[in-house]
Amino acid sequence: xxxxxxxxxxxxxxxxxxxITNLPxxxxxxxxxxxxxxxIFASLPSANYENAYLSLTGLLxxxxxxxxYGEICQRYxxxxxxxxxxxxxxxxxxxxxESNGVVLTLGGGVVAVAGNNGKFGHADGKGxxxxxxxxxxxxGRNGLSRAIATLDGRDNAQDLxxxxxxxxxxxxxxxxxxxxxxxxxxxxxAKTVIKAAEDGAKSAIQILEQGAxxxxxxxxxxxxxxxxxxQETPELAFLGGLSQxxxxxxxxxxxxxxxxxxxVVAAKGDHLVGxxxxxxxxxxxxxxxxxxxx
Length: 294
What we know:
Blueprint: E1 3-7, E2 12-16, E3 19-23, H1 33-43, E4 51-56, H2 67-77, E5 81-86, H3 87-96, E6 101-106, E7 110-116, E8 119-124, H4 136-151, H5 158-163, H6 165-173, H7 180-198, H8 202-224, E9 235-239, H9 246-257, E10 263-264, H10 271-281, E11 290-293
Helix pairs in contact: 1-2, 3-10, 4-7, 4-8, 7-8, 8-9
């Protein structure tokens, strides 16, 4: 039997056989990917798996030295082969398979991967400080920031103050307002901002419109890394928790279509599907996004 791990900024999903387990262990900015996997693997029941497929946030588009991932999987699972990939590539293969296009993953962070006849391009996925514009952390932080500024007399987003009362109460209880708990609060607050926008709150809509503008640039940037032709019509699919909002994905698609013709399609599958499929399609990896260890 094999194990598939999809690590994100708000949690991790682990698939063994047909069983999927969700764990509240997320990649934090202060922890390395390997140390996060150590925590995850230590919490799983002891078992042996011949192959391990790792879809990982925090790689910034470059797997780097694959040995630490192989060694930890061998230590915990006795794995003989380990397939390590940026979660954006796993998302792409899961959503579009071998079709040409772009997959935008909207979770706590953001990553776009484009594919065109076996050539891949990666955009954003740079982390909360230098990138991930339009993702969950960004949306939630902007919503909370505007609400807090309104209470401070520096903004006029009174609608957000009322709609984010729960998040503002949690913010006031934080002893350290710049740490990992604050970041987690921003990610969870994104759902409230999106719901507020869908219900017509003006300030929340403004945040999503700004986020969509940034994400449109991200999608186009990824595609331009694999194609400079204006004659192609790439497919565009969305994955991640925020992609459940048709309002947000619609705004993003409109921004993309201002620059390139694209066809919005439903994702065929997700990271847990994409990681093993990527290993099957590209057994030798796709450096730097995907490398193998044996």
